[in-house]
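hiii, so i know i said id send this last week but things got crazy w the move. better late than never?? heres the sequnce for the chain we talked about at the cafe, plus the structure i predicted for it. fair warning i was half asleep when i ran it
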Amino acid sequence: MENILVTGGAGFIGGNFVQYMVEKYPQYHIYNLDLLTYAGDLTKHQQIENKENYSFVHIDIADRQAVGELFERVDFTYVVHFAAESHVDRSITDPEVFIRTNVLGTQVLLDAAKSAEVRKFVHVSTDEVYGELSFDPTTFFTEETPIQPNSPYSASKASSDLLVRAYHETYGLPVNITRCSNNYGPYHFPEKLIPLTISRVLNDQKVPVYGDGKNVRDWLHVLDHCSAIDLVMHSGTVGEVYNIGGHNEMTNLEVVRTIIRALGKTDELIEFVEDRLGHDKRYAIDPTKIEELGWRPVYDFETGIAQTVDWFLENKEWWEKIISGEYQQYFDRQYARK
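okay and structure toks below
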């Protein structure tokens, strides 16, 4: 049985990828490594935590000794690296933790992967490293777009991207870098735009919208993202970057209004607030390169957002525990005593 290390597997995208891999590949043993910071939630994995091909590892990726000991204990074939501080607003308030996790943590993992001679190191990044686009609908980010990050978060991710590239060019480490557009779907942490809007609308609370709400993002369903990373891991050309986008450009205001309508409420719940510092105007990805590899998104935004709203309605207990903080006790109950 081959061993796959997934870092950040208690987060939103990494968590969905862990579940996807455990269910799809019984011949792989999936190791979910996560420090369980505020956004790390293990309750989402209750349906897989007793499966023979799944293990959870409570480690800080920036802890060189702990990571080294893990790689000595387990022979990993692949590393898929999601673990990162990812909330732009938090990076503006406290950039240091983003540098430690996203840059130093990545470098620690790269050293371990190099020593272990893994078959491939897949680094999951973001389109935010490219900076911003104008509102010209004919312009898109490609893999050749220069990196020009505009927030401490995106700067830390750009730095980690360059480290991954350097380890390939200098040491020959087999790598791929993926850069995705905004994800949405099940288990999305409630501080993000879509789940925040859903939870607030359900509670008849005001929904904050930055500035005039005209900032544009390309939305990608998280399960489409998982299938793309799976393809890159197995079939991506070593050393290449792959952009992953959903062909779903929407303004933030359009996203909020779509959710409000789906839940039968009115625009009176919208509250425009002071714009975020350094708020990029538009992100849009040209995914031609990964589509040539054989990938296509399954979800358009209309279908995906309807499914996502239904999921949050059916799983109210999960996100209410996230908001209350009760989810953070799950590790102590289920794992710390083992």
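btw The chain has twelve helices and twelve strands. thought thatd interest u
miss u guys!!
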